[in-house]
């Protein structure tokens, strides 16, 4: 893989795939920081799940492939992934970022790096106030723990109906923490101020709002605000982030997510909650 102009100072090269929510974190950050157009080169790397689909069913099984990698065969697309692992990121995971010859891995690390590297450009994603900054870092730690992203995937992948309730409750505990840590005065995590905390949750909310109800009968944000009073504020948050250009620009839509995450639902497939 040849990263064009990756050694030009300030030029960002981002290896990503907007089918991956972690990659979308970095892509949303680029848009919010106004790192667009000639400032960034996007290189789309096939996800492991996409390669599996292609190997089993050919190009017709993954219609997006012809648009993303025009003129490429299944073998060509597989080689793109192998070259990426050899030359850029040995794990094969996305996103990866290069700037001025330096390489940065992991979505949340990349997002904060871009804020630090371009502090006066686009949306400021990390507050100057130390208390607010600590709030964002606290939230990031919780998001990487067992009650948020892990619980989202756990709920979708669970094959034992008797565990549905416990896993859902774990997820709701994490989302409640998001609300409890958040500031008053606006819909975002820091109130009126959009921040990295919002960026990191946005792509997760975008896909799991569709996949969890479809495959497990679980509302991502419960509509029963009597039983879950914290959900009202999270609904306000969701309404606000859905209006942002960065959300709209990288959302794949319900049909895509339902199809793309069928494999995560496993043999249980589409199921009723607890059954």
List keywords for this structure.
disordered N terminus, 275 residues, Glutaredoxin, Glutathione S-transferase Yfyf (Class Pi), Chain A, domain 2, four-stranded mixed beta sheet, GST N-terminal domain-containing protein, alpha+beta
Please sum up the structure shown:
InterPro entries: Glutathione-S-Trfase_C_sf, Glutathione_S-Trfase, Glutathione_S-Trfase_N, GST_Omega/HSP26, Thioredoxin-like_sf. This protein has two domains: 107 residues, 3-Layer(aba) Sandwich (Glutaredoxin), CATH 3.40.30; 136 residues, Glutathione S-transferase Yfyf (Class Pi), Chain A, domain 2 (Up-down Bundle).
Can you give a write-up of this model?
- This protein starts with 11 loop residues before the first strand and ends in a 10-residue tail after the last helix.
- It has helices at residues 21-32, 48-57, 64-68, 74-87, 107-117, 130-143, 149-157, 164-181, 196-216, 231-241, 245-250, 254-260, 262-265; strands at residues 12-16, 40-44, 96-99, 102-105.
- Mean pLDDT is 94; it is low at 1-8.
- It contains 13 helices and 4 strands.
- It has 2 domains: 12-118, Glutaredoxin (3-Layer(aba) Sandwich), CATH 3.40.30.10; 130-265, Glutathione S-transferase Yfyf (Class Pi), Chain A, domain 2 (Up-down Bundle), CATH 1.20.1050.10.
- The longest helix has 21 residues, at 196-216.
- α2 packs antiparallel against α4 and α6 (130-143) packs antiparallel against α8.
- It is an alpha+beta fold and 275 residues long.
- The chain has a 4-stranded mixed beta sheet, with helices on one face.
């Amino acid at each position: 893989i040849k990263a064009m102009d990756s050694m030009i100072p300030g030029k960002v090269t981002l290896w990503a795939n907007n089918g991956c929510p972690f990659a979308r974190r970095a892509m949303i950050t680029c848009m919010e920081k106004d790192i667009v157009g000639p400032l960034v080169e996007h290189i789309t790397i096939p996800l492991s799940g996409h390669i599996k689909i292609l190997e089993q069913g050919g190009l017709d099984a993954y219609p997006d492939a012809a648009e993303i990698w025009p003129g490429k065969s299944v073998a060509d697309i597989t080689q793109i992934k192998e070259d990426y692992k050899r030359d850029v990121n040995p794990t094969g995971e996305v996103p990866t970022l290069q700037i001025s010859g330096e390489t940065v891995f992991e979505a949340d690390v990349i997002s904060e790096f871009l804020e630090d590297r371009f502090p006066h450009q686009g949306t400021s994603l990390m507050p100057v106030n130390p208390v607010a900054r600590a709030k964002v870092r606290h939230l990031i730690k919780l998001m990487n723990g067992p009650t948020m992203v892990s619980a989202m995937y756990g709920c979708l992948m669970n094959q034992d109906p008797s565990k549905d309730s416990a896993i859902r409750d774990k997820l709701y505990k994490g989302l409640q923490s998001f609300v409890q840590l958040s500031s008053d005065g606006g819909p975002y995590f820091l109130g009126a101020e959009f921040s990295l905390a919002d960026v990191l949750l946005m792509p997760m909310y975008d896909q799991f709002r569709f996949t969890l109800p479809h495959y497990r009968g679980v509302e991502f944000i419960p509509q029963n605000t009597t039983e879950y009073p914290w959900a009202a504020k999270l609904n306000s948050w969701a309404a606000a982030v859905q209006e942002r250009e960065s959300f709209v620009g990288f959302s794949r839509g319900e049909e895509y997510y339902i199809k793309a995450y069928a494999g995560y639902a496993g043999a249980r497939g589409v199921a009723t909650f607890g059954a």
